[in-house]
Amino acid sequence: MVKVTIDNHTIEVEEGTTILQAARLIGGDIVPPAMCYHSKLKNSGGKCRTCMVKVSQGSAKDPRPIPKLVASCRTEVMDGMVVQNITSPEVVEARKAVVEFLLINHPLDCPVCDQAGECDLQNLSYEHGSNTSRFEEEKRTYETINIGNLIQFHPNRCILCYRCVYAAEQLTDKRVHGVLYRGEKSEISTFIQQAIENDFSGNMIDVCPVGALTDKPFRFKNRVWFLKPMEAHRTCSKCSGKVTIWLRGQEVYRVTGRKNKYGEVEDFICNECRFEKMNSTDWIIEGPRTIETSSVINQNYYAKKINPHVINSLKEKME
Amino acid sequence: MERKIILENNDIEGIRFLDVYRQNGGYQSVEKALKTMTPDEVVSEVKTSGLRGRGGAGFPTGLKWSFIDKKSNNPRYLVCNADESEPGTFKDRYLMERIPHRLLEGMICSSYALGANTAYIYVRGEYKYIVGILNEAIKECYKNGLLGKNILGSHYDLDIYVHCGAGAYICGEETALLESLEGKRGNPRLKPPFPAVKGLYDCPTVVNNVETLANIGWIVNHGGESFASIGIGKSTGTKLISACGHINKPGVYEIELGFPVEEFIYSEAYCGGIKNGKELKAVIPGGSSVPILPKELILNTLKGEKRLLSYESLADGGFESGSMLGSGGFIVYDEDDCIVRNTYNFSRFYHHESCGQCSPCREGTSWMDSVLYRIENGNGRMKDIDLLVNIASHIEGNTICPLGDASAWPVAAAIRHFRNEFEFHVEHPDIVRNSKHGSILQYTNK
Q1: For residue B404, how far is the Cα from the chain centroid?
Q2: Do A160 and B359 touch (CB under 8 A)?
Q3: Using CA atoms, how far apart are residues B235 and B267, in angstroms rounded to an integer?
Q4: At what angle do helices B91-98 and B100-114 cross, to 10 degrees?
Q5: Looking at the partner chain, which of A49, A52, A184 has a beta carbon nearest the beta carbon of B366?
Q6: What's the whole-number mean pLDDT along residues B196-219?
Q7: How far is B306 from chain A (nearest CA, A)?
Q8: DSSP letter (8 states) at residue B305
Q9: What confidence score (pLDDT) does residue A314 get?
Q10: Given CB 3.0 to 4.6 Å as the disulfide criterion, which of A129, B126, B213, B279 pairs with B106?
């Protein structure tokens, strides 16, 4: 066991735990946000840079600080490590910068995006973003791509977190979902539009932190905050069968995996459960799902935090 | 004092070939190391020599070697980084073209020191013809028992393979290079683990620059201490400087570290002064990634000392008034050069070469590129200049690999030292739009 202090909270964790996981064990405001890290996907993380923290003491043995900010999702804790997250102005500034970078080419089409309401980027920019944009150039745009007949890909919204690439690599048997080109032009590709026919391909939708990969049958059917998430299960030969079904009245609008409060799927589910069992009679309903995350599905979350300065800064801009 | 280590015997005809190279004292270090020294002795000689990585970062080579994971049962690898893609740097190309055996000699000694039985040379895609030169040299070595099984009867085996990249700047970053060598997309890895623990195929690996490895033979022959006596302070040995830009004699020069910058630019033996008798305006002393310095600061430090070509002297004053030795790509600008245009050009390069893995670099490089494009074409605004400084500071230090820093430094430095030129571009869009070249006399004649 090693001892780590994050924002003045000390916790003992097992060796090999990352700073992010340790922070999640403590919980609360000090948990760094993460867009690309997904605990169920090997090698994910380190790319989006939103989870960066400052290590002000490397370890008890070597108390020197790490000169640069580190990605907490991929940095393992050392005994006696002291980490600063929200208590470091440097981290707050860097996080704000990363959010700005993620948003400059994001279309901000939340009003027509199916992900709105359960979007990690939306939450992230609400908490750390700025209310005006300094980006005046043209945003990069792509055509929408159909990945098979069940998933639709909107490259414009993609933040290149690589989660879906790892999901395709680790859950399905064929690696058909790589990244093409480089730099700003890089895009997620299915290698010449080859449809993914694997039984677990639907999980790509669940791991996507933004609205880039969306459930095609559910497209434009409903806003997530009008639906009622219920935990349900069925006996399935391919997966655990433990899902969340999203109901309006008695009608099942969509089926997803169960996501924890950090937006990570607990069990990956098969395409049969996700796309074919669309009757509430197919499912044994356990009860309503508690949405713990900072989500509008949980109602009134944003209302609590409305910041009156928004109006002032708008006024400034108009002047 | 002219001191040659790497380019020694450079002007002898046929030095490219093994027989000529050996007649002139080549491969003595291999015999010495393999027959009379233990691997640890070689490592400690390199440590004593104070040799620092010549690829840009200047990390002590001996220290890097000592990090290699000795407990691991996996094979160890030595990888030579010949993916020299930094704009302004062409020293490794020259060395490999002229004296490929210098590199191979160093690699054999280094592999022996590290206990590696396989070594790779990763050559950048644009240097495809050098693959042929290297392969020819390697073939000669195999024929003469310098490579392969039981080298010179010492029971030490080594194979060297040459791998050609596809032409990506990012593959010069050591972990991206390893990814590419493994046949994957050249995305840098997250560190730690460092390559010395988990490198090529998850085995302990050391990645060294061509010029670094080319020094090893000399160090083994003459000892670490005599190497340490060359140079100045912690900058030991010599350095290849690839001088280019508006000078009379561009080319690759070997200098002893600590050579004065002013003499290097104006002396007939080296750059030979500024072309067409013009005035010196600015210098980028270590390849496009390092901060540009105006004439006053490149010739003398802020303290009034003479600026020397060494790791410490060039870094004197930090980034406020200093720069870095970097990889030795010495780019000289004369009075007519437009710094804005030059900065835009570099920015475009980094935008094109970013791997796109982490968000600050992917989005930031393209943003800086487009803002600079606007300013360069007379569509800029005053606030864009501060915006650029701000973007650069947001990229710097927040990325996975140093490419982010490399893209931010030149922009920040250009604005720091030549802000008036950026302002001129904003204030006089008509002049900027109508001038075909970078030269805008209005502000250079000030």
Answers
A1: 16
A2: yes
A3: 22
A4: 100
A5: A184
A6: 96
A7: 30
A8: P
A9: 56
A10: B213
**CATH number of this structure's domain B18-229:** 3.40.50.11540
In chain A, whose CA is at the least distance from the CA of B186? A182
Residues B206, B64 contacting (CB under 8 angstroms): yes
| Size of the A and B interface in Cβ pairs below 8 Å | 88
Residue A297 pLDDT level (bands cut at 50, 70, 90): low
pLDDT over 90, % of chain B: 90
Domain count, chain A: 2
Q: Do B359 and A94 touch (CB under 8 A)?
A: no
Nearest-Cα distance to chain B for A68, in Å, is: 6
A181/B400 Cβ within 8 A = no
Q: Would the CB atoms of B398 and A52 count as touching at under 8 Å?
A: yes
Residues from chain A contacting residue B399 (CB–CB below 8 Å): 49
* Coil, strand or helix at A147: strand
d(CA B284, CA B305): 19
**3-class DSSP state of A299:** coil
C-alpha B226 chain-centroid distance? 24
Q: Which residue of B has its CA nearest to A47?
A: B358
The DSSP code for A185 is G
Residues A66-105 have pLDDT tens digits of 999 999 999 999 999 999 999 999 999 999 999 999 999 9
Whether B359 and A98 lie within 8 Å, measured CB to CB? yes
pLDDT-based confidence at residue A168 (cuts at 50, 70, 90): confident
* Partner-chain contact B370 A105, CB within 8 Å: no
Q: In the predicted model, what is the mean pLDDT of residues B368-373?
A: 95
What is the chain B residue with the closest CA to A74? B190
* Contact (CB<8Å) A49/B358: yes
CA distance A102 to chain B (A): 6
The arrangement of secondary structure in B339-444, i.e. its CATH architecture, is Up-down Bundle (1.20)
- Is A236 domain-assigned? yes
The verdict on a CB contact (< 8 Å) between B363 and A183 is: no
What pLDDT is stored for residue A303 in this prediction? 47
Burial A116-129 (b: 16+ CB within 10 A, else e): bbbbbbbbbbbebb
ipTM above 0.95, yes or no: no
Q: Note whether B198 and B175 are within 8 A (CB).
A: no
Structural domain span for residue A92: 2-97
Same-domain check for residues A78 and A198: no
Question: What is the distance, to the nearest Å, from the Cα of residue B331 to the centroid of all Cα atoms in its chain?
Answer: 13
CATH assignment at residue A47: 3.10.20.740
